[in-house]
Structure formats: C-alpha cells, structure tokens
Write a structure and sequence with these properties.
Blueprint (H helix, E strand, L loop, with lengths): L3 E7 L3 E8 L4 E8 L5 H13 L9 E5 L3 E2 L4 E2 L12 H9 L3 E5 H12 L8 E6 L3 E7 L2 E2 L31 H4 L1 H8 L8 H22 L3 E5 L1 H6 L1 H14 L9 E4 L6 H11 L3
Parallel strand pairs: 1-4, 4-7, 8-11, 11-12
Antiparallel strand pairs: 1-2, 2-3, 5-6, 8-9, 9-10
Helix pairs in contact: 3-9, 6-8
C-alpha cells in the first residue's frame, strides 16, 4: 500500500472525511449532514472514525473549509456555520489526529485537485467554481493558487451581479450567491434546486457566465471548471447557458478559447482537494 492522506471537507450542508491515495483515488469515505449546532463534536467523531480505517498512517491531514478564513490567526468562520466562527480548526484537528494539518478555502483545494488529477491537468490559469448551497471559487494563476491576504482569494460567490440586488449574508447586496446558490434558489422557488424551473436554471447559467467573463478578464484565465451539487445537478442546460453568455460578454482577444467544463472529479472533488493540500506541501 502506497502513501495516503487524511482528507476533511467542511461544507454548509455536509461534513465529509476520507483517506485519499497518492494518485488521487479515494480509498475510504464517510459523510454526515452538517448539524445545526455542535458541529465540532460531530466532525471530530467523523474524522476519528475515518482515520481508524486508513490502511497506513497518513502523511498528513488536509482540510477544505467554507470561508471566510483567517490564515494569519489560523481560524475559520464559515458564513453558514455559526458554531465554527473564529474556530482554530487546524490546531483542533491536529490535536485529535496527531497529524500535521493544513486548512484552506475548500474551492482552492478543489482547484488543486483538478490540476492534480481532474479536468484541469496541464492548465496553468483557471478558476474552480463550486455551486452548492453557496457559491465559491479558487483561482490558479501561473500554476499556483492565489490565496490573498487571509486565504480568501477567489470569493466568486461575492462578485456583484446586481447593483442594488438581494441582501447577502456577507452583509452586501447583489452577490452572485444570492441568485445562484442552492439556498437562494430554494428560497426563491419554494422547491429544492434539483427541481428548479428551466428558466431558473438558464438564469443561473447567465449570471455565472457574466461573472466568469469579468473574472477571466481580470485574471487572464484559460478555463473554468465547475462543480458542486447545484451545478452538476442542473447539467448540460446550465453549462450551455454559461457558454452562451460568455460568448456574448468575453470579447477581449486573450479570452478567445476560454473553456467551461464540469469538474473532472465530480462529487469527490472536495475530498481529493483536501488531500491535494497535503500533497502540495502547502
């Protein structure tokens, strides 16, 4: 048995942990719904259970977590998980596992995974976008992740798409997440995103395409890889709407050929991304 990594994914609707091999294969996986409260005790139990199933001692533990993060203070404050506000996640997980633990924005982790063994192998400049309960992004520029001052670079869901639009939990108005996130879609339609009307699916793609045109111009990107339960559940009509909007909006010469594809790792992208943080020696 070769080297392996302990991987943890902390999301708004789901907590997951797994053991990932040296080629990005998921050897062990377990997940639970994110509790409304007492998230850390539930996460700790999940991690211990998965670690006990590892075939060999993991080389380290990688954690992808919804933001915001504070890499200087070593804390996380996920917008929709109030019980983890200001929580020292890396040190707490390190204490229960005995492993060196690295925490990063979960979309940055996904971007690393897709560059390692997913849809972005060989691509040096791209954004990984995750559209699930919320909307996030991780940017790879010149083959390296953009992290920013506190580890929050790539906050795709908080790009403004309507000047005086819907209020966002971040405190702003008109953020992409308030139109395209699963929570927002369910609030608007009264039904889960997988049952959203065709018009909402198309509109969501239009907003994402519009935001990608702006981000592509800003960062000189080659591609976008898109995952998350909402995006993958919407399927081809959603991706068609994105590409159509991009074609209309992205007119700069260096954006010609900008591609939009689903994540190559599907629903495993976040876990493999957490492992990628350890593999990269972040």
């Amino acid at each position: 048995m070769g080297a392996c990594y302990l991987a943890v994914d902390v999301g708004t609707s789901r907590l997951a942990a797994g053991v990932v091999g040296e080629k990005g294969e998921v050897i062990v996986r377990d997940r639970i719904p994110t509790p409304a409260r007492d998230v850390w005790p539930a996460l700790a139990r999940l991690i211990k259970r998965v670690q006990a199933s590892a075939p060999t001692v993991p080389l380290g533990c990688g954690v992808g977590c919804d933001g915001p993060l504070d890499s200087t203070a070593g804390t996380v404050s996920p917008l929709y998980i109030p019980s983890l506000e200001g929580f020292a996640l890396a040190s707490e997980i390190g204490s229960i596992t005995g492993l060196v633990t690295t925490v990063a924005n979960r979309c940055t982790a996904v971007a690393r995974a897709e560059m390692w063994c997913g849809a972005a192998v060989g691509i040096t400049d791209f954004v990984a976008v995750m559209i699930g309960s919320g909307v996030g992004g991780g940017i790879i520029s010149g083959g390296h992740p953009l992290e920013g001052q506190h580890g929050n670079a790539g906050g795709f869901g908080h790009m403004i798409v309507e000047s005086d639009g819907r209020p966002c939990p971040c405190g702003g108005k008109g953020c992409l997440e308030t139109y395209c996130g699963g929570r927002a879609i369910e609030l608007e339609t009264g039904r889960p995103p997988q049952r959203a009307p065709e018009g909402v699916v198309e509109r969501t793609g239009i907003y994402v395409g519009r935001a990608l045109a702006s981000l592509g111009a800003l960062c000189d990107l080659q591609s976008a890889v898109i995952g998350g339960s909402v995006a993958l559940g919407f399927g081809e009509p959603f991706f068609t709407a994105i590409r159509s909007e991009l074609e209309q909006r992205a007119k700069l010469s260096f954006l010609r050929g900008f591609t939009v594809v689903p994540v190559g790792l599907g629903q495993l992208a976040s876990l493999v991304g957490a492992a990628a943080l350890v593999r990269a020696g972040k």
